[in-house]
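Bug report

Summary: structure tokens for Ribosomal RNA small subunit methyltransferase C differ between web form and batch submission.
Environment: batch mode, default settings.
Steps: 1) Submit the sequence below via batch. 2) Compare with the web form result.

Sequence submitted:
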Amino acid sequence: MSAYTAPSQIAQRQLDYFKGKHVLVAGEIEDTFPIELRQHCQSVTVFTSNYAYFRQIQQSEQVKSYFGAEFDQATQADLLLLYWPKAKAEANYLLSMLMAKLGQGCEIVVVGENRSGIKSIEKMFSDYGPINKYDSARRCSFYWGQCEQTPAPFTQQDWFASYQLTLNGHTITVKSLPGVFSHGEFDLGSKLLLETLPSLSGKVLDFGCGAGVLGAFMAKANPEISLEMCDINAYALASSQATLQANGLEGRVFASDIYSDTASDYRFIISNPPFHSGLETNYNAAETLLGKAPQYLNANGELLIVANSFLRYPPIIEQSFGNCATLNKTSKFAIYHAHK
């Protein structure tokens, strides 16, 4: 049984497409197929917006790997292997950025699950050149195409959505890139959390910062706090940084795979924790966040999170802290609080 995801398995069936090529791999890649692919082509470069995946793949000396919201490295890549992302807007962003980088004449292979909307590549790629499906297996599709037109220049700034939010007497401007949680809209769970928060002090971590909505509002309402914001997603980090800048606020924004790069002396950890990984529901990150939180809080530290009411988080919080209070609740969301 292959350890590869289904999109990688369908790519593995079509290795002839990659022979002699300098391959740039991007998108929703989740396994080590690029390392095997290196044996069948001239070179492999991986560009990922997922910090957890980057930490894994960068350990390989056989492929070059880059983490970020924009691929700005010099490259000799002549074929793009795009793993179709779950958000169509993110696919469009990636395509525009990478086609502008690789230029006219480059080839493209797109793989992904049919339920993720990969068929959209047919229309999305039409401005660049022809693309066709050449294989289908395991509910996935394999497309090959070639860029025959000169791609338009790419400017990341053009891709930010910008909107204003007012809450508790404070107004902020939110900036977000495609594929980021709260892209273009205010999540009702985050709103409930902000309405429930006590006054904050000391070092505050906004875990899973997304577009920076929580962090920006917390800094506005509590200007004395030392704000830190982390996320696993490079688009989220770029968005949070842009949101802080748009509001004249300061904070440290950084990549972290759960607690991999955080400090361990927070007065508050505040989060609207993610529970999706790609198209799947995945509780691992949130459960680790909650279970290990006491280790990253100072002696008086507190945890406050919002979660969908159906998620069984209170027992995890109770086990790690010895206490868990529900501060607020609607039919859909609950605000949980714990202290050391």
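Above is the batch result. After comparison, the two runs are identical; trailing whitespace caused the diff. The first strand starts at residue 22 and ends at 27. Residues 160-339 form a domain with the Rossmann fold fold (CATH 3.40.50.150).
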